[in-house]
Amino acid sequence: MVSSLPHPTTSAGRDGLAALLARPAKAVVALDFDGTLAEIVPDPERARAHPGAVEALAALAPEVASVAVVTGRPAGVAVRYGGFAGVPGLEHLVVLGHYGAERWDAVTGTVRAAAPHPGVASVRAELPGFLDRAGAWPGVWIEEKGRAVAVHTRRALDPEAAFEALKGPLGDLAAHHGLVLEPGRMVLELRPPGMDKGVALAEYVQEVGAGSVLYAGDDLGDLPAFAAVEKLRSDGTPGLLVCSGSTEVPELADRGDLAVAGPPGVVEFLAALAEAVRGS
């Protein structure tokens, strides 16, 4: 292990990292996009992979069984914003978009997708008027996510008050259309049930036949993926949970084996991990 590679604070995390270093060719390295590989920005359409992220992934990917980006974004959008297409070393990268409902494989450069949930179209049409009736929250805005719809409060004058005031009504709206409400960092996402990063990650790890798994995330939407890794560990597959540090989501930091300082820390960790597996 190289000196720059940080040490997990838990025994389960240390076991997960040791298993990855011992047999990197059997490891799946999975990462969230926003807040993990890319900084959180006021306009999600301007999010881009942090400088050095693609290079670190390209150095690591040939040494492990697979690198997967697991995101709530459409797969094609994450590929574009990440700059993942056509990068030497990332020929077998997989992007599991919309919580696994879409999948982009670098080897083919194509996206495969399941049929959309009809409730999303209904919510999309109803949401602007619904927010107008819900009260005056200047700065609150809607993000179209294809298979989901998100309401952002980060630009509001009082983001937390808007978030709390809208959470209940939006939960009712989601339920009325057969959807679920997923809170995040000043964002409330309405999406189909059964779509989460834990399901996507568990299915992919099983598909690959991984001997170990690493998952890095930053938000409440990453908790199901953390739970999936914890379940895998209880079933005998070592795993490492990395929290892309945020004071906004202590629930994630409390569950992680290792905390790093946001996307810059993730990039530094990935680069050190790539160096470590090449030297193992």
Task: Kindly describe this structure.
This protein has 280 residues and is of the alpha/beta class. It contains 9 helices and 12 strands. A hairpin with a 4-residue loop joins strand 6 and strand 7.
What class do helices, strands and sheet pairing give? alpha/beta
Spatial shape: globular
Strand percentage = 15-25%
Quote the distance from N terminus to C terminus.
Answer: 7 Å
Q: Helix share of residues?
A: 25-40%
Radius of gyration: 19 Å
SS elements, strand count: 12
Number of helices: 9
What number is the mean pLDDT? 93
Task: Please trace the helix and strand order, writing H or E for each element.
Answer: HEHEHEEEHEEHEEHEHEHEH
Which secondary structure elements does this structure contain, and how are they paired or packed?
Elements: H1 11-22, E1 27-31, H2 53-60, E2 66-70, H3 75-82, E3 94-97, E4 102-105, E5 110-113, H4 118-134, E6 141-144, E7 149-152, H5 159-176, E8 180-183, E9 187-191, H6 197-208, E10 212-217, H7 223-234, E11 239-244, H8 250-255, E12 258-260, H9 262-279
Parallel strand pairs: 1-2, 1-10, 2-3, 10-11, 11-12
Antiparallel strand pairs: 3-4, 4-5, 6-7, 7-9, 8-9
Give the key terms.
eight-stranded mixed beta sheet; globular; 280 residues; alpha/beta; four-stranded antiparallel beta sheet; 19% strand; 9 helices
